[in-house]
């Protein structure tokens, strides 16, 4: 008891010494506070960002729970300071971990469906890379996006590596669900009741390394979801006012879990490995993926929507880097080795989906052949209203590729003594590629419409599917 009293006195004296030293020079009437630091003042950012839990007895004294994310038995110095200031300190991640990323495909339909389908999910949780990132990497502060990104639909950069909407946006809209908020994006009072997006640009299935663009690999994204779920249920139980922002407990079992990841594992490997080495690594990559979806299944997930990877050899970036020798290109002008690796990855991913479906009979696993849809678009681009299948709309260098890996879309840089800007093209609807790596909104819209035909799904869309689609067109 004596020791406890002494500790309290020491803490109190320390706080008063801070205020006494600032009494004559500081006015503590601030409208807001932004805190930067380490675990001494971390109120949950590290735990939320990496998706891990602090077990008891952390938080036992004041909060009575270990889920506050503080490395302490109770409050931190920053919490005590908050009692003196007319505001409360919050971790950006405590309540604002986004819900899922709806990945259901739909927009307007180019081909009629033989049987209508209904995507009747209360929530969507999405995992992936830049193909479906709606702001995660930008919210993390690792990168920023400049105009003309987002110019078409959002009129400003929206956190998406695109001139407008992504496939996932079109699918959400077709399901009459709101666009998914990024898990880490806590600004703007986001709601996660209908889903949350954990996809992060640059992410891989395999654990990130020191040279990775994104630290949020697939395993970390799954861990973020687990923390999100636990935190959402805990907050709903404590405060009914949060019900409109967070999903109900039953939503987690009824939700659609969507995946579009693996592109960076394959494409990135070509910078340091031979084709044979890359092909040999695919089983290891897919073991990591299977472990992740099994964790989600164990948490009650039952509806899985899995995209395979697209024709990586047709991305402007890869043609510019690996296609300088014409003998390396196929008849479409794409790098053959990259597409070969993508095809083999997809064959093994498809087998994994079939095995998972057989092993867990109560799981609905839908495999979507994105590779074929995108390959058809590039092979027959003019038929679908496009003029440029490979050249980037937003880039630097001009034809035939308009791509320079030293400058990103919207950036202004000094290259070889000259200041240059990677500008957008006059009409992005004529281009398949937006920035050399990602597709334009027009191309994403086309891909979405093809997904909705059901022809590229296994199993194909039918009345036996667990959802029905409200067609808007």
UniProtKB/TrEMBL annotation:
Keywords for this protein: Glycoprotein, Hydrolase, Membrane, Signal, Transmembrane, Transmembrane helix
Which InterPro entries would you find in this protein's record?
GDSL, SGNH_hydro_sf, SGNH_plant_lipase-like
| Gene Ontology MF terms | hydrolase activity, acting on ester bonds
UniProt signal peptide: 1-25
Domain of life, per lineage: Eukaryota
Q: Which CDD domains match?
A: SGNH_plant_lipase_like
Does this UniProt record's set of keywords contain Cell membrane? no
| Pfam families reported in the protein's UniProt record | Lipase_GDSL
Q: Which residues cross the membrane?
A: 87-111
Q: Tell me the protein family, please.
A: Belongs to the 'GDSL' lipolytic enzyme family.
Q: What is this protein called?
A: GDSL esterase/lipase At1g54790-like isoform X3
> Which organism does this sequence originate in?
Juglans regia (English walnut)
Name of the coding gene: LOC108988826
